[in-house]
From TrEMBL:
Domain ATPase AAA-type core, chain residue ranges per copy: 29-147
Name of the protein this chain belongs to: REPLICATION FACTOR C / DNA polymerase III GAMMA-TAU SUBUNIT
A single Gene Ontology CC term: nucleus
CDD domains, A to Z: AAA (cd00009), HLD_clamp_RFC (cd18140)
Protein's organism: Salix koriyanagi
Main location: nucleus
The keyword Glycoprotein appears for this protein: no
GO biological process: DNA repair; DNA-templated DNA replication
Signal peptide from the UniProt entry: none
MF GO annotations: ATP binding; ATP hydrolysis activity; DNA binding; DNA clamp loader activity
Family, per entry: Belongs to the activator 1 small subunits family.
Domain Replication factor C C-terminal: 216-272
Keywords: ATP-binding, DNA replication, Nucleotide-binding, Nucleus
Amino acid sequence: MRWFASSPTPSRPQIAHTCFFMAHLAPAKTTTALAIAHQLYGPELYKSRVLELNASDDRGINVVRTKIKDFAAVAVGSGQRQGGYPCPPYKIIILDEADSMTEDAQNALRRTMETYSKVTRFFFICNYISRIIEPLASRCAKFRFKPLPEEIMSNRILHICNEEGLTLDTESLSTLSSISQGDLRRAITYLQGAARLFGSSISSKDLISVSGAIPVEVTEAIISACKSGDFDLANKEVNNVIAEGYPVSQMLAQLFEKVVAVDDISDEQKGSHMQEFVYC
Ligand SMILES: Nc1ncnc2c1ncn2[C@@H]1O[C@H](COP(=O)(O)OP(=O)(O)OP(=O)(O)O)[C@@H](O)[C@H]1O
Ligand SMILES: [Mg+2]
């Protein structure tokens, strides 16, 4: 597994002293950290070797001085394999949503991390690396998660549909992947919402309506009206959009994507359109 840097023997996996998992979306950062911990220790040792702290736990300096320090300080056995799991001789502290920790708490963590690095490894998970203080960030091996590729999203969504008895055709599947933009949680939420509202056979239109995305025909109509140079036509399309009450931010985001993708205007023209979007 690529998280385990330079593993000397298969029974002694080495992970970086501190790992940072970061991404703006939900491409399974938490799931990855939990999966690594489970693979290392198995169900029996997991509870005693792994401390998980998430956003619902207190994130002040007191937690670092008490709960985290107490857990980090205690050494564990020499790392005999148990039940086929590697069980390395260190523990793991998973700090989910680490960007919501106070600055004082982050400062206090620096020392704890260094002092107990032999017996405890840290996984920090965050959405915004800018909210992590530099001395902490620079002590970590960073893993930036990309949005999940369409193929992986689709496989998982199809698996869920299978288990839940939902029907999704190829068009709906690709619509779901594109409106959720590599965010698996968002895709699952849309699927759930559509299944509840429209029943087990879900169309592309159903998914668009639960997601709040603007139908492709609408954005395409605006773009072609603008290209035609016919002011009245463009005005009519804009009035349609206003009458439907589509959210402006969503409209701009979708128009942005469309403009970037068109190939019959120059990059300079695209740039000037983008500038106009920014002024909007
Ligand atoms: N390999 C997988 N198989 C099935 N479902 C998965 C897998 N990985 C992630 N998921 C599901 O995708 C969703 C998002 O995963 P996760 O909570 O790990 O994302 P995250 O990056 O931590 O998101 P956030 O930034 O919101 O905390 C969850 O519902 C999770 O159950
Ligand atoms: Mg998470």
